[in-house]
Amino acid sequence: MAYTFKIQPAEKVRLKHYDPEHTGGLTREQGEAKLAVLSKELDVLQEELYAAGLDSVLVILQGMDTSGKDGAIRHVFEPCNPQGINVTSFKVPTAEELGHDFLWRIHQQTPERGMIGVFNRSHYEDVLVVRVHELVSKKVWRARYEQINHFESMLAQNRTLIFKFYLHISREEQEQRLLAREQDVAKAWKLSVGDWKERAYWDRYIEAYEDALSLCNTEAAPWQIVPANAKWFRNVAIAQALVDGLRPRRKKWQARLAEISTARLAELKVYRDSL
Ligand code: ADP
Question: Which residues have CB under 8 Å from 80's CB, separation 6+?
Answer without folding.
Answer: 42, 43, 46, 116
